[in-house]
Amino acid sequence: MSNEIEAIKDPGLPAHVHRKADSDPAAANRAERQVAILFGISALGTVLLIVSYIFVPQDLFIFIPVMGNQNAHQLGLGLGMAISLFFIGMGAIHWAKTLMPDTEVVAQRHEFRSPDSDRKEFVDAVKSGAGASGLGRRSLIKKSLGAALGLSALSPLLLLRDLGPLPKKEFETTSWKSGTYLVTDPGNRRIKASDLEVGAVAQVLPEIEDPEHRALSDIGKDAVLLIRLRPQEFNLTPAKLAMTHDGIIAFSKICSHMGCAVALYEQQTKHLLCPCHQSTFDVTRGAKVIFGPAARPLPQLDITVDGEGYLVAREPFSEPVGPSFWERNSQ
Amino acid sequence: MTIESGLGTVANYVDERTGAAAWMKKNLQKVFPDHWSFLLGEVALYSFVILLLSGTFLTFWFDPSQREVIYDGGYQPLAGLKMSAAYASTLHISFEVRGGLLMRQVHHWAALIFMSAIVAHLLRVFFTGAFRKPREGNWIIGIGLLTLGIVEGFLGYSLPDDLLSGTGIRIAEAIIQALPVVGSYISYFAFGGAFPGESFIPRIYTVHVLLLPGAFLALITAHLMLVWYQKHTQYPGPGRTEKNVVGYPLMPTYMAKAGGFFFIVFGVIAFLSAVASINPIWLYGPYTPGQISAGSQPDWYMGWLDGLVRMAPPLETHALGHTISWNILIPGLIVPGILFTGMALYPFIESWITGDKREHHLLDRPRNAPNRTALGAMSLTFMLVALINGGNDIIATHFSLTINQIMWFTRFGVLILPPIAFVITKRLCLSLQRADRELVLHGRETGTLLRLPHGEFVEVHEPISPEKAYLLTAHEQPPALELPAVDAHGVKRAGGLRNKLRSRMSVANAEAITKASVNDLKEIDHH
Hints:
The complex is a heterodimer of chains A (331) and B (527). The mean pLDDT of chain A is 90. Helices cover 34% and strands 16% of the residues of chain A. Chain A has helices at 20-23, 25-55, 72-98, 116-133, 139-152, 154-159, 216-222, 238-242, and strands spanning 61-64, 68-71, 105-108, 182-184, 201-206, 224-228, 248-252, 264-266, 271-273, 280-282, 288-291, 300-301, 303-305, 311-313. Chain B has 527 residues and is mostly helical. Chain B has three domains: 1-32; 35-299 and 308-364, Cytochrome Bc1 Complex, Chain C (Up-down Bundle), CATH 1.20.810; 425-526, no CATH class. Helices cover 63% and strands 7% of the residues of chain B. In chain B, a hairpin with a 2-residue loop joins strand 5 (316-319) and strand 6 (322-325). The chains are: A alpha+beta (331), B mainly alpha (527). Chains A and B meet through helix 3, strand 3 and helix 7 of A and helix 5, helix 7, helix 8, strand 4 and helix 10 of B. Strand 3 of chain A pairs antiparallel with strand 4 of chain B, so a sheet runs across the interface.
């Protein structure tokens, strides 16, 4: 006896087990009837679909236990479609499983590798073809072809140039100017400082001549949140404190992380939370980031009031609002 | 004689004009192995067909335009509001077109199931080693389809221009904007100016309904042709070898089952669409950059990406008048790039480690490839932790946790848990191998207790069938690669560090519990 390890032998494919329908004609007929019933249920589904489409009004709601109030039209259409399709599938599979041949068949595989002679001829053909073209020897052709192909790839890029204008300085500017009035959104009404109670929060936009046609791209940069605290609650540098008015502080509503609207304000903690990635900003400390992925505080807008007590911007934003970009000069 | 002779006439007609008989004869009897896990790819294929059908229906009414309109349709809560034509036409499909809402739901459910099926299919292929030679190319096509699927799905749910999806586009714009040097330019080109502009929806509409479906069709065709030509893999078992394929002939059994299965997938999707509301855009309202709804979530296949972005530490580099947002670039582009590249190259990496360049048509049982299985479990754990953080706000409100707790858990978890999953999975695989060995050598535990004359209790073991014994021992256990630092002539090999790495990984990869053999059985008999 050698020491070679002997693997456990392959007993070969197990013997085929015949189904009842293979030998018993009554079982086969029963299976046929079952398939027919399944197809029949499918037909009923189609009828339900047609009836729902034509006769069930679109605004009819019915109460169904567990599911609650459901639109009968939608439900009828959907269930009808589901039944009509599902039972065609069930019928076909039941048919295949009970009546079609279920003997496993063995087919042979062949290695994909070609015979060595073919492989050699193939390689030779490639080599001689490449040799005949002279690509290897004629380096001038090779280099100039490479350069030409590379350059020609520029043309599709160039043709895409007119997809849009150049950004110029637009990422860095908003509609806020010195003296721009703050107006409500929605409503476009000027706001008096006295309209805001302590603890209140409001979304505002810069006043423009034609508020009916305010561009979404402007809102995307101009949106500002107004929050009123008690002045003693602030913990700000003198410069930042001077940008508030009587406890009213204004921040860009556009998240400094990825530009979502920073819309969740927790009155108790005085935190602003962005619902997209949960960056959390502390209002009392000038929207300093206290949690989450944002790397910069929300830019603060310098506000004051005019002679009649209406809120206005004293200065435009001193830094770009919204997410970072390559040209942004962040300090 | 009716149907049979009719089909015979058709076959005759076709052959006389194409000479296809020889090819058809061979291929109609093509053998397909049967296993439930082979249906996962089929689900993906059928969902794609359903997507094409339902998507075409939706294009008949959808207006891919960001032109501003005043809503005057039947849904009263939004009456008189300004919105884009895209959003208004989606409302029209939902409320006025009969069956429109159903088709929207079919389209969205089919997309979710399409992506789920692709991922499940990918896991099946990975854990059974079906990607090995000669199927590496098809693996890469599959990774391409997965990637395109993620993009296509994102573009699709962005089209209605509702508040939720518009927020998703805003985030995509921020990722583009964060690209060093070219970011702001590419953003302005993509959006035709400042975000959101009026160009983006029409542009992604063309990509969504023409460009990407075309790419899908081409890749799916190549994917299926390769499966056909290379023949399907099969699970190991008695009578199944690397040289054969055991299963059912295409005509009629497999055709009926596969065709029937298409209707079942369609039926299930229609059922879900009938009873489970998905993406009720009328509740979100039209998009405006100044507003947002709490609990903003992407579809599940984007959730891991969003989770990574959420957990990123607040890192930005500010230097020389420029800003680089690592908090966006690392989770949004660099990590996914590494993951997907690694995934695409995995067949080549594994073959480099094992030195195995042979063809494989028999699948591995996952326990018999402990390293690969552990690697898969590790990657899944990473994705799962990221996905959990993608839903941290929802989880926080449902389980009375704070966002901060979940965020800190996932920030550490995403680094610590995957290696733990690797170790546990590998040990589990080896334990299962040990159990297999026990089973072959000592048989099945019957649960019958026997009291011996001297009072000792023993459990009666029953030998397992030769088929089962073969199944549990059919796998190969190749030794680790031998890569000595000096070759046979005493010359130091080039690339010492590379060799050392390869050697170490090969040893780890070859770790196994020696499978039971006839010799072992004889030895037991002997005692």
